[in-house]
Each structure stands twice: as C-alpha cells, then as structure tokens.
C-alpha cells in the first residue's frame, strides 16, 4: 500500500488538516465510563454485525511460535497493548440518533491457554481455530479482541488473535506486529513499556470525522456520489448458486499465484498507461466479469486506508473506507482504453473519498442488506506484515476459513521472486471451490491475452 499511496499522492496532492482533541459528548455510559459517538466506520461494521450471527466481522490472526515462549511475558505484552489502544476495549450502545462507542478501563487480557495433542498443521489445530472463529462477538459487552494460546508440543505454540472489524483493520495489523514485538521484549527484561505516547486517541478521530462532515460538505459529497452511481445495475456474477435475499456470511479462501512474467507484463503496461498496479488489477477483474457475462456497466468496491493524516498511522482501530468504482465497458474497449477509464474513475473517487461508506449506503441502498450493495471488492495488499518476537521464530498461519463480507473479494499481494498471490475470498452461498478454481484459470488466461493484445477490443466469451 505504501508505494501505491506514494504514487497516488504524486497524482493528487492530499492536504491533511489537523485533528482537534475530542472530549466526552456527555452521554451517560454504563458504569460511569465515558462514551463517544462512534466513527462511521464503526457504525458500518456494527450494522453488518446486526445482519449476521455475530461472526461476519471476525478478523483472525494466527501466529506460529517456535522456541521457548514465555506465556506470562506474552500476556503482559498483550495487556499493555490493550491498555495503549482504546478500540481494543471498546463496546457499543445505541444512544438516541447515534451509535455510541464506550471505552472501558484497561482490565487485563484473558489469554486462554490450551494444550493440543498434535503439532501445528494438524486437523486438531484447524478444528480448534475454526471453533474460535465461529464464536460470536458480543458488541454490547465485549471483548472485541480475543486471545487464545495453543501449545502444540514442547517449544511450539500457536497464538490466535481474533478481532472485530469495528476495532481493527489491515493497517492495525502492522501496528500490532511492531508494538507486540517491542512490548514482549520489554516484558522479558522486566521493564516497562518503552513505546512513546500516542499522538491522539481513536475517539479524537471519530469526533473530528463527524465535525468535519458539516451538512454542506456532506451534501456536496453525496451529490457527487449520487451522480456517479445513479442507476448502477446489479452486478452479474459467474456464480455456482443463485442469489439469496440474505447471506449466511460463511466463506472460504482459495490461494493462487500469477507468474512473475504476467505480473511484470501488467506492471509495464500500467506504467506506460500512467496507472498504478492496483488500478490495473481492478481493470483486470472488471474485464473478467465483463467477458464472462457481457455486462457493460459494473460497480466494484475498493478499500482505502482512511488514514490521510500522519497522526493516525500509529493507532489501532478501524479507519478503512470503501469506495465504489463504476466502470463502463461499452463499445468493446481495448484493455489499454479500459485502463484509462479505470484511472479516471479512481482519481475521481479518491478526490471524494471523505464521504464514509455508511452514509453512502444509507443514501443509495437504504433497504438492501450490506452484502448486496457492493458484492465484489478488489484490493492490492502492500502492507508490511512481518511478525517477529524476541528469541522466537514467528510465521503467520492461514485461517482455516473466512467470513465473506462480500460475495467475491480479490486480494492481491506481492511475493518474493516477482509473483503475485491472488487470494479469492468467496461466499459459499454463491460459489463452490471448483467454480473459484475455474474463475482464476479464466483470469490467468485473460491476462495473458490482454498483455499479448492490449489494443484489441474485449471479447465476451460467455454471455
């Protein structure tokens, strides 16, 4: 994400404004804790949770730890992390017209420790992780971060952290890994936290966000998005099962790779067309959906970090916003032409990204369930997720399952050697594993053809 952001800043100068400190809004929270109006991102995921069984917004993070782990030091490091970042001890309560976020005092972390009979990679471990992911969150009482330490054998553990999306996002994972390493090392030495004081609190951001969206500014942004998305048709997906009025949000993930030659070819084509690689991947997915179903007007969601101020980069919390990019594929455009259209649509969206998706959803799709508003999402993941703990070998483990907040989500990530990982998260209500395998093979073949003839018109193969 950092290289993408740098390049986009050269395309569009972003001028951050200072964030004023917040103060309690005077809402009487339970037990005398201060309460604040929730951010619009928190509101978005709180609403999504209401449509599900309490598991749709679960974000798992499983770390395999090899070596002589000190559980007491790990527990202390996690407690200091929760004490430092208020969203990790936040719950919610409706309050009049607003959803309120209630920040509880730091009261430690309940680090559950269990012993397994088998090593990491066993079916026993997978089943236990799955069980934890299927445990609903209680947004009224918390906690919205759960910690489970599984001892597989001597010198081998798995730390499973499960967060609710309203208090944690992809950027937060970078903060988590960096600060957990520092705090664990300090705990091993019997020292206090060496981390500097945070520049502001998450509630400061939430208060600023609401104040900065004055009615006139909100109306101007809404007017733009209404004009852009007016009469956007429902997307036609190459699904294996018919659409349902309500998803279960059960999902799975399939992992693939695009070869270095394809990635380099796409990167070179994007560079010649003055677009970023993330825009090129968005255009590729749009072309894939178009050539399959013949749809000429497609809306795809792209997440943006929502941290346009340097002071927000060190905070844990949910800041991510979702932009809807409308892509026109009429008159059989060439891929080069499509890249230009995607670039124009993306830059226009970036210029109007300050409207929270929760407001857009209210205005444009007030009676639709969340999954139906933006069924397809595309994202290039470029954040440096490199977990490390002192005296331990640490690596991330894949999650055994995934909650599908959208019907189809493409996540791309650079791999060593120049290849690109393609993680496709899909709703099992709509897609089968075999169908996703076929979809990726179509994507790979399509990309090869587009690179061979970027100026040839797109051809619908399965309308």
3D structure, described in words:
This protein is an alpha+beta fold and 463 residues long. The chain folds into 2 domains: 19-204, 2-Layer Sandwich (Chloramphenicol Acetyltransferase); 219-452, Nonribosomal peptide synthetase, condensation domain (Chloramphenicol Acetyltransferase, 2-Layer Sandwich), CATH 3.30.559.30. The protein is 37% helix and 22% strand. It has 13 helices and 15 strands. Strands 5-6-7-2-12 form a 5-stranded mixed β-sheet, covered by helices on one side. Helix 3 (71-84) packs across helix 5 and helix 8 packs across helix 13. The chain is globular. Mean pLDDT is 90; it is low at 1-17 and 22-31.
Number of strands: 15
CATH superfamily placement of the largest domain? Nonribosomal peptide synthetase, condensation domain
Oligomer class: single chain
Strand adjacency order, main sheet:
5-6-7-2-12
What is the typical, i.e. mean, pLDDT? Answer: 90
Large-scale geometry: globular
User: Which CATH architecture of the largest domain would you pick?
Assistant: 2-Layer Sandwich
Q: What is the count of distinct domains?
A: 2
Order of helices and strands: HEHEHEEEHEEHHHEHHEEHHHEEEEEH
Named CATH topology of the largest domain: Chloramphenicol Acetyltransferase
Radius of gyration (CA) equals: 22 Å
CATH class of the largest domain: Alpha Beta
Strand content: 15-25%
What is the CA-CA span between the terminal residues? 35 Å
Q: Pick out the low-confidence regions.
A: 1-17, 22-31
Number of helices: 13
- Specify the biggest β-sheet: 5 strands, mixed
- Strand-pairing-aware structural class: alpha+beta
Helix content: 25-40%
